[in-house]
């Protein structure tokens, strides 16, 4: 993550915003050598804060994105090669 002193951030704000809009990583704004804030694009902020989406909406979005990929790549029965084909052993309580 790029660090930018406060005085440079003030002088180069338009360049920093262009860089963020182009997809660069967030920038740390420092004052007197200590991190004071973070400058990030609006898209990164929305993703981080989850603005407008509750837990159930975000969970549904996650399931739609990741579980369908997993279902498509998984076999119908992943244990088919591991199970014994015979009837098993007798058991009684």
Fold and architecture overview:
The protein is α+β, with helices and mostly antiparallel strands. The protein has a single domain, classed as YefM-like fold (3-Layer(aba) Sandwich). It is built from four helices and three strands. Strands 1-2-3 form a three-stranded mixed β-sheet. The termini are far apart. The mean pLDDT is 79.
Secondary-structure topology with pairs:
Layout: E1 2-5, H1 6-11, H2 13-21, E2 27-31, E3 34-39, H3 42-49, H4 55-73
Parallel strand pairs: 1-2
Antiparallel strand pairs: 2-3
Which descriptors would you attach to this protein?
alpha+beta; YefM-like fold; 3-stranded mixed beta sheet; 3 strands; 45% helix
Alpha-beta content class: alpha+beta
Helix content: 40-55%
- CATH-derived architecture: 3-Layer(aba) Sandwich
CATH level 1 name: Alpha Beta
Q: For the residues shown, what is the average pLDDT?
A: 79
Number of domains: 1
Q: For the terminal residues, how far apart are their CA atoms?
A: 63 Å
pLDDT < 50 runs, ≥5 residues:
none
Strand content: 15-25%
Element-level helix/strand string: EHHEEHH
Identify the overall geometry.
elongated
The strand line-up of the biggest sheet is 1-2-3
